[in-house]
Specification:
- With 175 residues, this protein is an alpha+beta fold.
- The chain has a single domain, classed as Glutaredoxin.
- It is built from five helices and eight strands; from the N terminus they run H-E-E-E-E-H-E-H-E-H-E-E-H.
- Strand 7 and strand 8 form a beta hairpin.
- The protein starts with a helix and ends in an 8-residue tail after the last helix.
């Protein structure tokens, strides 16, 4: 009986984190110069945004936590965009789903830059293993923080880090 209780408790503990975010160890180095096509048909490179802090969010139309965090990302863009923060919402849906992505973006009034990464080359470069994945990148192009999972559980910490990021005072330790 005691064994069964421990097994149930362990399973609940594991499952309780399924819709939450956990900061990953910050990646070192600069962002790659991959060229991506946006939903609007423009070709961009992450290096095009050097000099501006970035929030890169990897998402898919079928990902429930991704859809749940778009209002948070809209708030972030509204609050920090005037300070130079650029939001890139990188979609990782298969190329056969592009019309669905366009419909989704239109229906949800998403006005972010939407690069397409259907082969997940960029996503995999950042060691992505689950969606959503969010990266904070400083103006020099260095990845300073990563979040895997729903951002809502980290809103207060994220707000502080974004304030530091746009003012150039970001600490990788969050201090």
């Amino acid at each position: 009986m005691t064994k069964r209780i421990y097994l149930i408790a362990a399973a609940l503990l594991i499952l309780s984190g399924a819709d939450s975010a956990s900061p990953l160890i910050p990646l070192q180095g600069n962002v790659p110069g991959y060229k991506l096509k946006t939903l609007a048909g423009k070709r961009i490179s992450l290096k095009d945004y050097r000099g501006s802090p970035l929030l890169i969010n990897f998402w898919a139309t079928w990902c429930v936590p991704c859809r749940k965090e778009f209002p948070i990302i809209k708030e972030i863009q509204n609050k920090f965009g005037k300070d130079g923060l650029v939001v890139l919402a990188v979609n990782v849906d298969d190329t056969r789903s592009i019309s669905g992505v366009k419909s989704f973006v239109s229906a949800h009034s998403l006005d972010f830059i939407i690069p397409l990464d259907p082969n997940r080359k960029l996503f995999n470069n950042f060691h992505g293993s689950s969606l959503p994945l969010t990266l904070l990148i400083d103006a020099s192009g260095n990845v300073v923080r990563t979040y895997s999972g729903f951002l809502g559980v980290w809103e207060e910490e994220l707000d502080q880090q974004l304030t530091e990021l746009v003012t150039g005072g970001f600490s990788q330790n969050g201090e």
